[in-house]
């Protein structure tokens, strides 16, 4: 008799999510009316600017540059964080050796990393990808290490008894066990990577969405500025609902089967 409750809970959460979205739009409209079009575009003005932006000549070049940087930065950062976290979870000595670097990268403000990267790499994609990689890797590393520390030692001993190869242990033992924390860390890394890439482009790039945002700010084109901001929000939503959530369901399918 208690089976329908999850469905009711999901339906209720969706209704409240829609209500929250409507409330945000209302607050946005009221704030735009209060501040004026020079400082904040209304939702309708933003949609009109978005339509013009999508049909502009340089939109695909600017958006494509940011997408490539986000993919490279998040991919390199997440891959490096996962690999180092996996090795550190297996080796306490390596974990102790990497701890100062982990603390340094998580403690330093991103703007400091941006300034240093501009000095080292100059303007362009290399600087942006370097910053995104450094900012994404620590979070993935920490989640991987904590997941490895929670791994059942009996499973590790069983893998040793059956003499599983390293890639077999990775695919059949470590990845299923780390699926839940890693997908959550990947979501945070992706959102953080988008923010870091755009910030780096605003401060020191000659192309990309952040560069376009800086131009819109300098010309006081609030409609285009909010249109780019809306596009970035839609990008994060698409990545979460079309990539990360299906990946999470696939990786955690064995847990659902066990509970069933």
Automatic annotation (TrEMBL):
Pfam family, one: BPD_transp_1
Membrane topology per record: Multi-pass membrane protein
PANTHER family: ABC TRANSPORTER PERMEASE PROTEIN MJ0413-RELATED, ALKANE SULFONATE ABC TRANSPORTER-RELATED, MEMBRANE SUBUNIT
Keyword field contains Acetylation: no
UniProt domain ABC transmembrane type-1: residue ranges: 63-243
Keyword flag Transmembrane: yes
Any one cellular-component term (Gene Ontology): plasma membrane
Top-level lineage group: Bacteria
Protein name: ABC transporter permease
PROSITE patterns cross-referenced by the UniProt entry: ABC_TM1
């Amino acid at each position: 008799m208690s089976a329908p409750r999850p469905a009711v809970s999901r339906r209720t959460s969706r209704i409240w999510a829609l209500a929250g979205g409507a409330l945000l739009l209302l607050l946005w409209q009221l704030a735009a009316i209060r501040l004026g079009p020079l400082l904040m575009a209304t939702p309708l003005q933003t949609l009109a600017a978005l339509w013009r932006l999508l049909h502009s000549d340089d939109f695909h070049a600017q958006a494509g540059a940011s997408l490539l940087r986000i993919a490279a930065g998040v991919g390199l950062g997440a891959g490096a964080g996962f690999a180092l976290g996996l090795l550190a979870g297996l080796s306490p000595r390596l974990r102790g050796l990497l701890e100062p670097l982990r603390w340094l990268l998580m403690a330093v403000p991103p703007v400091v990393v941006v300034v240093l990267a501009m000095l080292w790499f100059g303007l362009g994609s290399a600087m942006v990808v370097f910053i995104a990689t450094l900012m994404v890797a620590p979070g993935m590393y920490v989640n991987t290490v904590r997941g490895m520390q929670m791994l059942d030692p009996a499973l590790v001993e069983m893998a040793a008894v059956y003499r599983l190869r390293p890639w077999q242990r990775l695919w059949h033992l470590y990845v299923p066990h780390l699926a839940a924390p890693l997908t959550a860390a990947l979501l945070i890394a992706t959102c953080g990577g988008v923010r870091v890439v755009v910030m780096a482009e605003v401060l020191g790039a000659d192309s990309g969405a952040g560069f376009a945002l800086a131009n819109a700010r300098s010309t006081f084109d609030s409609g285009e500025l909010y249109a780019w901001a809306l596009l970035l929000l839609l990008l994060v939503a698409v990545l979460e609902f079309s990539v990360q959530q299906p990946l999470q369901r696939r990786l955690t399918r064995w847990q659902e089967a066990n509970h069933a």
